[in-house]
Amino acid sequence: MRERSSPMAQFGRNQTLNNEPAITMNVDQHLRAYLESGQEAAQLDQVLSSPTERHQIYRAIARQPPRPYRLLLLRLLDREIAFRNALWDRSAEFDEESAEGIFHCAYLLSLCGEPADTKALWKAQYLNQDVGELEVEYFIGAGVPETLAFLTHENDETSQEIAGFIRDSLKQPIETQWLASWRASRHAWFDS
């Protein structure tokens, strides 16, 4: 018995159900549409599937305040985690630039300054040997006191692990200059 494919699977990326050419949008147009509607369009969902196009999204978001894209970045982080797992399982092809997407996404997410995002970022912590360990800077985008206060208030096992990681990593006093230097080095990729 032959499997039937869905109507959506029967046409290419640049065609509609009526076989009319689809209007393809560039990354900036996708992001503008996302901000206007507050949700992802079907075309944007297709773009999110491509590691190369996710990198274009990261570069576009880096040119502006990332906070309005926070929910999109959380979704992208899930995509990056799935991609890194696929690389680990050898069910996806490795290329150096695509493999870095998890770090670019985590960096932009940290710039949103939302303490609750530490829990989403923690899913990438110790993901596998290829990812290694995210640096503490990714977890303190909201500020050290604010993040620790949030995690203390949450008072669950994961929050306690994250708080312990932050405290252990920051045994030396953190200096504003040091954090600014880290941010500048991470941001340099977007300018290259």
State the helical fraction: 55-70%
Radius of gyration (CA) equals 19 Å
Distance between the termini: 52 Å
**Percent of sequence in beta strands:** under 5%
Query: Judging from the principal axes of the Cα atoms, what is the shape?
Result: globular
What oligomerization state is this entry in? single chain
Secondary structure category: mainly alpha
Largest sheet: none
Low-confidence stretches: 1-23
User: What is the tally of helical segments?
Assistant: 10
Give the overall average pLDDT. 78
Following the backbone from N to C, one meets helices and strands in this order, namely HHHHHHHHHH
Topology readout:
Elements: H1 27-37, H2 42-48, H3 51-62, H4 70-88, H5 96-99, H6 101-111, H7 117-122, H8 144-154, H9 157-169, H10 176-191
How would you characterize the overall build of this protein?
The protein has 192 residues and is an all-alpha fold. It is 57% helix and 0% strand. Helix 3 packs parallel to helix 6, helix 4 packs antiparallel against helix 6 and helix 8 runs antiparallel to helix 9 (157-169). Residues 1-23 have low confidence and may be disordered.
